[in-house]
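ingest -> validate -> predict -> emit
validate: passed (alphabet ok, no gaps, 165 aa)
predict: started
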Amino acid sequence: MKRFHVHMHVSDLDQSIAFYSKLFAAQPARVENDYAKWMLEDPRVNFAISTRGGKPGLDHLGFQVDDADELAELKGRAQSADMALLDEGATTCCYARSEKHWVTDPQGVAWEHFHTLGSIPLFNEAPAVGSAHAAACCPTGNPSEPEPGKAACCGPKSTDAAKCC
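emit:
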């Protein structure tokens, strides 16, 4: 079963945790010094906030799936819709190990499709030396404005692997 995913950048994590906890009538399932996540059942949503980004607001949307078959189905849909697809494969981000890919809608909104495989103690693990991620990260902090000459690291428009999820 799919779970809708929303990731927002916030300027004050504590203030935002207090607000969303009241709005959702639930405490976050995970809280770190730069990140919080609610795994709500009604509605079924993975709602994450972090201070690791550009200006406050929407970072990306997505679908979290329960298994590899659902992820393959979403990938097939994206490919059949002639969407540019960035396949990250196995990766770490947002305190989790996942298998994921990204697409961008016609308006430029990044969509993440992912299957979470487990929890990790860090926001993301350092990429291997010589990997595409190691060569790709950009300092702009704005996912819609990648550094010239650099490839995306997380989403189709992401500029820093540490800011993804």
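Residues 10 and 56 are 5 Å apart (CA to CA).
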